[in-house]
Amino acid sequence: MMDTRRHLRGIGDLDRAALERLLDLTDHMAEVGRRANPKVPALRGRTMCNLFFEDSTRTRMSFDTAAKRLSADTMTLAVGSSSVNKGESLRDTVETLGAMGVDAFVVRHRSSGVPWRIAEWTEASVINAGDGWHQHPTQALLDLYTIRSERARRLGEDAGFEGLRVGVIGDIRHSRVARSLTEALGLLGAVVVHIGPRTLMPPTPLARSTDDLDGELEDLDVVYLLRMQNERMDAALIPSGEEYTRRFALDPQRAGRLGEHVLVMHPGPMNRGVEITVDPTTLPGAVVTTQVTNGIAARMAVLFDLLGGVETEVSA
Ligand code: NCD
Fold first, then answer.
1. Residues contacting ligand 1 via CB (< 6 Å)
2. 76, 168: one domain
3. Which of 1, 123, 226, 304 has the most CB atoms less than 10 A away?
4. Burial of 237 (0-12, 13-18, 19+ CB in 10 A)
5. Average of per-residue pLDDT across 108-137
6. Does one domain contain both 98 and 149?
7. Residue 88 predicted with pLDDT over 70
8. Domain range holding 230?
9. pTM above 0.85, yes or no
10. What's the total number of domains in the chain?
11. How many Å apart are CA 131 and CA 108, to the nearest integer?
């Protein structure tokens, strides 16, 4: 039970009720984002510190924008992945920044488990922005929110997640996105199938898996494509890029077989010509840029949930 409200290190920090509460809060934050002035004073006086030890464009900018829309102060430590790789120096960094009055650390690191370590060294909240192959909980949250809101918009009702069929396609084994998303969808009652080469499936299955995309395609409500990482090709985990594309890419022919209400998603960055060979802007179900937009609202919800509710005003 300890810590489950103070941090968001993985989907394991949430139960179904907490997840649903965050989705509702995301809805509220999305409404704030649509205002002419999309800024509220909710987290005035609070400080969020970005600790990104791995490259990122969208996740870091998204957290930054989310904090600013809530009027929090932001600090960013720009670290190359090589400069901090000893537990001791990471601890020093966290303690030093903590002493400057940080309320939340947003952490991305190539090693699994780093957000849990950091949580032991600081009084601040820790939010995981991606640790190794392990977890990326705010990506899962923005994806769930996108599924929920886009289906409600397209189908005219909030159909919920119970029984929803989601195919996650690609390199499941090395994907923190797939891991967090699969866990989160499971909490809400959705049915996930992992589709990809057998060499890219996790050693311990997280869901039913298959290498037959064409056999699954027509049963899916959501097609979730993962980024195929070039280093996997070098490691001979797949026969070749062309072979991968032939068997697992969303191409025009496969896209044509998708039902009218099927959503097509990708966490970005997209490898056009590898996992997707059709222009997503031509697909009515593609919501890739909506995912990016919703990422801000989802991160606002997380920051508000962890840091809000404390009186920060001092009387004049
Ligand atoms: C993902 C990541 O870094 O884990 N990207 C992201 O956060 N938008 C997925 C990826 O890099 O493939």
1. 58-59, 130, 136, 139, 176-177, 227, 267-268
2. no
3. 226
4. middle
5. 96
6. no
7. no
8. 137-292
9. yes
10. 2
11. 6
